[in-house]
Specification:
Distance between the termini: 22 Å
Order of helices and strands: HHHHHHHHHHH
Mean pLDDT: 85
Number of domains: 1
Number of strands: 0
Strand content: under 5%
Helix content: over 70%
Radius of gyration: 17 Å
Length: about 260
């Protein structure tokens, strides 16, 4: 019962973060499973990534159904992210003390505050003014940055993507989140498969509970997000990210 409760609560946070902001479930689920259930870190990350796959996929489907998904540039960015994750990982292995600790957690908190204080009010009309070549070039550059950071410090992908899509590429928030979860579905699948291939199958009850809870809440959050106005979505996303950031910092402190 305790295992189910922890997985359900972790899934709520991960699902809301994924559906609202394209956040990786690993940022929420991993510290919860490690702290309260005593799972090895590698196994916890594998479960979190597996939870990410379906949650991101159903969120991407919901955003795509509402025409809030840029598949073409999303694919360009995804390929670049996967490639430079390998590059960042290799370089990280050559540099001592490369970890940046709570990088992704602080980014989650700061990005949440940013959406509350300074909402993203870009429209699809203003997005359309950007040339195709410029958008592709920006997608490649963003993919390089996100991939390298993911590979180098092992975290921060979802938040970095959302920040770059809204700031550098000038996406309106719904399209930014939709494109982010589209990319995350594939990157999470790649990560989950590699984790299970190397570390073996994880705790099955934990895996099932986390996947089911994350999927449920991601679906709820994505449906709400696509119906909400821009200002409401900015505030809701900001509150969710800020609360998750503070909560994860608190959980990490308990470890």
């Amino acid at each position: 019962m305790f295992t189910f409760l922890i997985c359900f609560i972790a899934g709520i946070g991960a699902g809301l973060g994924t559906g609202f902001a394209g956040m990786s479930a690993a940022a929420v689920i991993s510290p919860m499973l490690i702290t309260f259930l005593g799972l090895p870190a590698y196994e916890a990350v594998g479960i979190a990534l597996a939870s990410d796959v379906l949650a991101s996929a159903v969120s991407a489907y919901t955003y795509g159904k509402n025409k809030n998904l840029d598949i073409r540039n999303g694919i360009v960015m995804m390929v670049t992210v996967l490639l430079f994750t390998l590059v960042g990982s290799f370089i990280s292995s050559l540099v001592p003390n490369s970890t940046m600790g709570n990088f992704s957690v602080f980014m989650t908190l700061l990005l949440g505050i940013k959406f509350i204080v300074k909402p993203v009010m870009t429209t699809k009309e203003s997005m359309a003014e950007s040339s195709v070549k410029k958008r592709v070039a920006q997608s490649v550059l963003s993919g390089i940055i996100v991939g390298f950071i993911c590979g180098f410090i092992g975290a921060g992908g979802g938040m970095m993507m959302l920040l770059l899509l809204t700031s550098l590429l000038g996406y309106e928030l719904k399209t930014a989140v939709g494109t982010s979860v589209f990319i995350m579905a594939f990157t999470a699948f790649t990560g989950a498969v590699s984790h299970f291939a190397i570390g073996g199958m994880p705790d099955i009850p934990c895996l099932v509970f986390c996947v089911a809870s994350t999927l449920l809440w991601a679906r709820i959050a994505a449906k709400f997000a696509n119906k909400a106005s821009a200002i409401t979505l900015n505030r809701a996303t900001g509150v969710v990210l800020a609360v998750l950031g503070v909560s994860i910092l608190a959980v990490n402190y308990l470890q």
